[in-house]
Amino acid sequence: GLVVQVGPWTLYHSGDTLVYEGLEERLRGLAPDLLFLPINGTDARRDALHVPPNMNAAEAVALAQAVGSGVVVPHHYDMFTFNTADVREFEALASAAGVPFHVLNPGERWTFRKS
Fold first, then answer.
1. Which of 44, 39, 33, 42 is nearest to 58 (CA)?
2. What tens digit of pLDDT does each residue of 17-36 get?
3. pLDDT (tens digit, 9 = 90+) per residue, 45-80?
4. N or C: which end of the chain has fewer CB within 10 A?
5. CA 101 to CA 17: how far, in whole Å?
6. How many degrees, rounded to 5, is the angle at CA 94 between CA 3 and CA 103?
7. Is residue 55 within 8 Å of 41, Cβ to Cβ?
């Protein structure tokens, strides 16, 4: 993943990743305003297809809760039919956990405002 600081904003984009030891602490220390996290997960079928492993929706929500800051923008879904996830599952989990999020739609313009 990578961290980008632009003016007063800190953004974390995970790329392909799993939750690993030390990730929560690193992110907590950075206090990202936006976290772009994958939600497509991994399983035996994806392993057999040599798809890079990723966290799933529940893991993304748990990571966001542990970090305690920022708006989560889910990614790694609806790009490839063999490697997708239902973003509605993420929305339900994030809503139930009180994790702020925004699902980007194709062509949508979204203006993030830091609270």
1. 39
2. 999 999 999 999 999 999 99
3. 888 888 888 999 999 999 999 999 789 999 988 677
4. C
5. 19
6. 65
7. yes
